[in-house]
Amino acid sequence: MEAATTPLLPADYLDLFAPLRSGADLRGRIVSVHPETADAATIVIRPGADWAGHVPGQYLRIGIDVDGVREWRAYSLTHGPRADGNISITVKAVPDGKVSNHLVHRAEAGTLVHLEQATGDFVLASKPGKLLFVTAGSGVTPVVGMLRNLFPATDSGVLRLDRSKALDITVVHVAPSRPESIFIDNLHELHEAGAINLVDRYDDVHGVLDIDTLSELVPDLAERTTYACGPGGLLDALAKHHEAAGLELFTEQFRPVVIAAGEGGTVTLEKSGVSLDLDGATTILDAAEQAGVLMPSGCRMGICMGCVLPMREGAVRDLRNGAITTATPGETDNGGVPIQTCISAAAGPCHIDH
Amino acid sequence: MTVITKKAENPTAHLTPEDIEQIGIELDAIRQDIIDSRGASDAAYIRKVVDVQRKLELGSRAVLLASIFPPAWIAGTVGLSVAKILENMEIGHNVMHGQWDWMRDPKIHSTTWEWDNASTAEGWKHSHNQVHHTYTNIVGKDNDLGYGIMRVDEDQRWSPFLLGQPVWNFINACFFEYGIAAYDLELGKNLRIPKEKRSDAFKRNAKNTLKKIRRQATKDYVVHPALSIPTGSFLPTLAANFTANLVRNLWTHSVIMCGHFPEGVETFEKKSIPANETRGQWYVRQMLGSANISGSKPMHLMTGNLSFQIEHHLFPDLPSNRYSEVAPRVQALFEKYELNYHSASLPRQVGSAWHKIVRLSLPNGWLEQTNVKNAPQQFALLYKLTTGGPKVRRAYDAVQRRAENKKLAEAAA
């Protein structure tokens, strides 16, 4: 077949008609977008034929074109396996969040998105007993995924399945305010049905939660296994607290690395094993060549694309117009973001695959 | 024409160094405006073109399965020709320039793209993006000036071999993709090197190119004709593929000739280019070294927007669908700085380029000085120059140059 389509692959033509077929790169199509709060929405996606399924609490990486640019982000899957075979993620629009705002406010049914298989170790152990979930902000999403799987909500109320009868679950949910809390109605529904014990704390009502007072909110804290999902600050505090108390803790964090552009930085050429300390005015190409690294190069003025290398992590500045390009593991393509080394200077620590 | 520095009236003489840097700043601002406004509609455009091109190719090839029927042959061949032209021009050439890299789509990216052409993407990106776009129209550095087999500038030396260049040019046009592949390999130069001394890079590139040519030819001349056997269409499909490649070659060759060969496009002397040429100076060289083709929207599409050759050379990495938008601003800048914005219709530019190919197949000044009356003497002179060896030709050049200088001196006086 390939002999008939070279230099393209048969897949390039099949993709025109059946992008979700078995054997294609994993993709999905947005089926519907349901607003949850003013700034959060659940997005239901029909995954491609090769979707391998997931366990509640896992997340997936999704690639979507925002203003024409492919962006990748990780989101928790909010449901257990669904009868219709679709998957869903719930996204909260964060201030200045390029992708989250796009998904919540502008995503449309019918859009093709790019997927990776579900992953994540934040799933319930096989024989759970007494559990504590600590969730903050949109960190509630993987937990809701697990709870929905344990306690399916139907029109006639929350089901209590045999497999969930032995569970004793407390959820401590923290958010800036109640209206900004996604899934809070679901949590209350479960609480009222007796499935969970919900302790919700709002910064505007109760003040910012001090982790050291956790044992006051959850008297039997010591008997519980803690699962926590939320921003880095909360998880760090919790880790410290639990370590001091000798308690078990499982955590999940979505945005582990924040790339902030600065002036200059250490550029690491991974395969060459070379690290360079650069100022903000030297091109990566010049500096690497000075250091004796064999670099691909071409016009040296930013037009020929002969010097392009993938940046796995970091930020660079285009010396022609000052534009910043960042590569954040988990948010940008796994292969890295291709950068033109001849016109790029370090704008922070960079890792380049070369 | 003659390199700009040897001209009686250097068209850039009125520009101060400050002007030149200001031109650079203004062009950078135009570039930035487009970069700032690139977005979803541009991405939708290129995906649409790719989608249409692939469906057109599939449809045409499907129709050709029954190419024994003349209407099917005609429709399939026309469709396939258009598909191949779109694939090379609006898609391949522009994607390999990195015009769509900003989308971060690995399927439409300069580092992953391969095109339907004998030349490999890697070889093309080197000879075209790097050498031609950096050293545009510098005699002796930009091999696009005559592709190493033709004389397209007075300052390239004449030899009797060049008498045949209109023929070489036509043959090159028919088999342009192979010409490009040979050119990307610098085949002429490398074949003169003894086999054992050729560089490893050349050997590797030559191997890759041969592999590519074999695959391309197998597809067009074996696989698809073979698929047509059930309807008895082996030969018609073979002919259709050959015709589509021929049409594509003639078309791309014509468009590309229009970019830099028409009369009045400037060329540059190697030694006149400063070692640390500024961005402004580079921009001015690009402005004067290219020519546009005026015409309709479909025409622009079929040329891969190389009809905006000036804009393309100024901003080779901007998305091609935006060239038409920046063209009026670029043209206004030319007018502001009193530079010649070279633009004409396709027939005129093709005619002009061919005129130059014919004119320069003859020694400098010969065609201009020949009329009905002196034709016998002129042909005798041409015979002498052709058979007489380098010394005779140098003497002729000296006479021509002296006459030229005299004319300049008189004009100046």
Notes on the protein architecture:
The complex is a heterodimer of chains A (354) and B (413). With 354 residues, chain A is α+β, with helices and mostly antiparallel strands. Chain A has 3 domains: 2-115, Elongation Factor Tu (Ef-tu), domain 3; 130-252, Rossmann fold, CATH 3.40.50; 265-352, Roll (Ubiquitin-like (UB roll)), CATH 3.10.20.30. Helix content of chain A is 20%, strand content 32%. In chain A, the strands form 4 sheets. In chain A, strands 14, 15, 16, 17, 18, 19 and 20 form a 7-stranded mixed beta sheet that branches. In chain A, strand 16 and strand 17 form a beta hairpin. The mean pLDDT of chain A is 87. Chain B is mainly alpha-helical and 413 residues long. Chain B has 2 domains: 4-343, no CATH class; 364-412. Chain B contains 17 helices and 2 strands. A two-stranded parallel sheet of chain B has the order 1-2. In chain B, helix 1 (17-37) runs antiparallel to helix 13 (323-336) and helix 8 crosses helix 9 (234-260). The longest helix of chain B is centred in the middle third of the chain and has 28 residues, at 200-227. The radius of gyration of chain B is 23 Å and the shape is globular. Classes of the chains: A alpha+beta (354), B mainly alpha (413). At the A-B interface, helix 1, helix 2, strand 4 and strand 18 of A face helix 1, helix 2, helix 4 and helix 8 of B.
